[in-house]
Design goal:
This protein is mainly alpha-helical. 58% of the residues lie in helices and 3% in strands. Strand 1 and strand 2 form a beta hairpin. The two termini are 24 Å apart.
């Protein structure tokens, strides 16, 4: 089966041929032959497009299945990490109770060590929940672009330097 682009080339060539003769296909035999050829191209094109859409549907279904499997595996990863962390915490409690700082086994070297980085910081829960309640000297300013305000100004006819509302793009919907 020919490619969709080859079929498109043939359809374009036919359209150009008809344009060159000003659409005059006066002989009945030529007219009938062109009509049959055009119908065959159309059927071939439609079959090719149908197969193309089937391929898109198959790839989409495979992607959905892989996404579901990834979600399932991610949940298992999270479960394993929680289990490993809890077992490690219990082992550390055991080391603390037994007064063990270091231990060497056949496969592992274990050490109770101080955490690196900055020391933990405790702040009031109210500050964490409502940062505006903390003194202003502890606020961090965050600047965000208000694209909705820009759009509103442009729609009302105001000039906003370097900004414009673009035409919407298109997409192909396959049902």
């Amino acid at each position: 089966m020919r490619t969709l682009f080859k079929i498109s080339e043939d359809l374009t060539a036919l359209a150009e041929l008809l344009t060159d003769v000003d659409g005059d296909v006066s002989l009945e035999e030529q007219s009938d032959a062109l009509e049959i050829w055009f119908d065959e191209l159309g059927e071939e094109r439609d079959q090719k497009i149908d197969n193309y859409c089937a391929l898109i549907a198959e790839i989409t279904a495979r992607a959905d299945a892989r996404a579901a499997e990834m979600k399932r595996l991610s949940a298992l990863v999270a479960t394993d990490r929680v289990a490993a962390d809890q077992l490690k915490e219990r082992l550390q409690v055991f080391f603390s109770v037994q007064g063990i700082q270091k231990l060497k086994t056949d496969r592992y070297n274990l050490t109770v060590a101080k955490n690196g980085g900055k020391s933990p910081l405790t702040v009031p829960d109210a500050w964490r929940n409502e940062p505006a309640t903390a003194p202003e000297q502890y606020h961090r300013r965050v600047v965000q672009l208000d694209v909705d305000a820009i759009r509103t100004d442009l729609e009302s006819g105001q000039d906003v330097s370097g900004c414009r509302i673009e035409e919407r793009g298109t997409h192909l919907r396959i049902k």
